[in-house]
Amino acid sequence: MGYVFGFALLVLAGAVVVLFAMLGQLSTRSGGGAAAGTSGVRLLEEARIGTTPSTWPAGLSGAGEGPLRIVLVLSTACSSCRKVADQLVGGSDVADVAVVVSTGDAVVGAEFVAANGLARLPHHVDEGGDWVRGEFGIAISPAALVFRDGMLISALAFTDFTLLRATVSPTRQRV
User: Fold this and answer.
1) Over the stretch 132-152, which tens digit does the pLDDT of each residue have?
2) Is residue 126 within 8 Å of residue 76, measured between CB atoms?
3) Domain of life here (predicted)?
4) Which of 35, 52, 58, 141 is the most buried (most CB within 10 A)?
């Protein structure tokens, strides 16, 4: 009986370790790690800086043109992304912002755009995240892709649009 109890306790302890490892990975992928001990905005080192996309989706035509543009990558499965979408609806400083909604299902992505009032911004529903991952190497959200004349000059993970804007604003002023 003692061996069975010991074995069950060992299996339970292993399951708890795996659960915490999975939660940590989820937090990192969703940008949750960006807020811990930092300003809430961090560089995405895996991004392909200097890349000009081979194609722009129809909903983002013109999003890469101009001296400085920001393309936000949001996900339908991310609670931080919903908070960012709420900030965009209430914000007035979004003239240079476009949105890519990364989702597993195009219908769910379209519902996210409609439910969060993002239809007024240039936007693209990126089924499977294929365009963002394929063109720029970005696989987390929320993320901000900063373009100058169509070329990716910076990629940032963030959890608050106001903090992101404060980070990008000095760059906008220099342009």
Assistant:
1) 999 999 999 999 999 999 999
2) no
3) Bacteria
4) 141
CB of 57 within 8 A of CB of 65? no
For residues 135 and 4, give the distance between their C-alpha atoms in angstroms, rounded to a whole number.
52
Q: How many domains, the chain?
A: 1
2 occurs within a structural domain: no
Q: What angle do CA 134, 154, 139 make, to 5 degrees?
A: 35
Specify which residues 73 forms β-bridges with: 100, 143
CA distance 117 to 113: 6
Q: What average pLDDT does range 55-69 have in this prediction? A: 85
Q: Any idea what the Cα angle at residue 137 is, between residues 30 and 121, rounded to 5°?
A: 70
Can you give the pLDDT at residue 19? Answer: 54
Q: What six digits make up the tokens of 49? A: 């800086």
* Burial status of residue 25 (CB atoms within 10 A of its CB: 0-12, 13-18, 19 or more): exposed
Q: How far apart are CA 173 and CA 175, in angstroms?
A: 5
| CATH code where residue 112 lies | 3.40.30.10
Q: What angle do CA 154, 35, 22 make, to 5 degrees?
A: 100
Tell me the backbone φ, ψ of residue 100, rounded to 5 degrees: -115, 125
